[in-house]
Amino acid sequence: MLKRILATALAVAFALTLATGMAVAAAKPAPAGKVNINTASAEQLTTLPGVGPKLAARIVEYRQKSGTFKTVQELMNVRGIGEKNLKKIEQYLSAGDAAARSGANK
Question: Does 24 share its domain with 39?
Fold first, then answer.
């Protein structure tokens, strides 16, 4: 009987901890303006919903290796960003004027 009560108490505690963590993650405020994916630092990218430090670092690394993003949709080339993730953050993103910059460099 004591084992059953203890197991139930642990399950409830775990569920509350998990629920609290999700609520904190969901409460992340949206960025004030558009985030330019071609110039943003990893820290700035973490202000986006669902983007943590590891994903932000992968975005920056991809940009350094492959050059500027011409469109926001090119973010789907980064591991960890699929259609669902992109839909969540697309409204907060800008690719700036990458086409104009690449044309000016020729």
Answer: no
State whether residue 9 is helix, strand or coil.
helix
What does the DSSP 8-state code read for residue 92?
A: G
Contact predicate 34/91, CB 8 Å: no
Kindly state whether residues 53 and 1 are assigned to the same domain. no
| Averaged pLDDT, groups of 10, the chain, 106 residues long | 70 61 56 90 94 97 96 96 94 77 44
Q: What are the backbone angles phi and psi of residue 93, rounded to the nearest 5°?
A: -110, 155
- The confidence score (pLDDT) of residue 28 equals 65
Query: What range defines the domain where residue 7 resides?
Result: 1-29
d(CA 89, CA 77): 15
User: Which residues are CB-contacts of 64 (< 8 A; sequence separation ≥ 6)?
Assistant: none
> Does the model's pTM come out above 0.70?
no
Q: What CATH number should be reported for the domain holding residue 63?
A: 1.10.150.320
